[in-house]
Amino acid sequence: MEGESGLTLVDTGFGAGDIAEARKRMGRPFLRLMRPALDPAETAAAQVRALGHATTDVTSVVVTHLDLDHAGGIGDFPGARVHVFADELEAATERATLKEKNRYVTAQWAHGPRWVAHEVDEGGERWFGFEAVRVIDDDVLLVPLRGHTRGHCGVAVRRPSGGWFLHAGDAYFNHGEKETPPTCPSGLRAFQAAMQMVKAARHANADRLRSFRAEHGDEVAMFSAHDALEYDELAGVTD
């Protein structure tokens, strides 16, 4: 998203440092299991440059959460403000449980990002019935969707032509989970269960997103971080 103060980037994927130090940062088990492409041309920094911008034009990075496959590119934008929920930043920096030690890679933010930690204020902003935290004017909002991690959120971005995008991050993984009744491949369902930090919250938010899409699908284009079909459906949207 381009605004008066610069570019805003939502999530970063893997960054240049991850590609250069893949085994050290991710470990061989992760690389064997997930088989990430780790293509320099697919990093957020490379794609920003391909659009004719400099990486310094990115003044804000907004993250759904700080898992290694979402936050690796933070270091490629060292001057940007990095917006995250306070609970997520605490979880990632303290790494209090074994699961959190394995999922967060502190080398990805060893450069000392300009963190902007947001607290969820239940008496604050409302967005289609969700509590929300305003990040940039009224155009970018953090929407609490905890469960996958302790401070996981969605990111809502206003479209210039009207309506919204909702990047739901890892609140769900497959487009079938948006349907009623929901469907999901068994392996993917097991993976989500293995990675979740707060089971009840994850399931409650998945149900809520399903109802939200049924009620507001004509106003909000919702997609997750890992479903290629959803990205294909959005490919024709230019704003």
Describe the 3D structure.
This protein is of the alpha/beta class. It has two domains: 119 residues, 4-Layer Sandwich (Metallo-beta-lactamase, Chain A); 119 residues, Ribonuclease Z/Hydroxyacylglutathione hydrolase-like (Metallo-beta-lactamase, Chain A, 4-Layer Sandwich), CATH 3.60.15. Helices cover 33% and strands 21% of the residues. The protein contains ten helices and eleven strands. It has a six-stranded mixed β-sheet with strand order 6-7-8-9-10-11, with helices on one face. Strands 1-2-3-4-5 form a five-stranded mixed β-sheet. Strand 9 and strand 10 form a beta hairpin. It is globular. The mean pLDDT is 93.
Keywords:
single chain; about 240 residues; alpha/beta; Metallo-beta-lactamase, Chain A; 5-stranded mixed sheet; about 20% strand
In a few lines, what is going on in this structure?
By secondary structure, the chain is of the alpha/beta class.
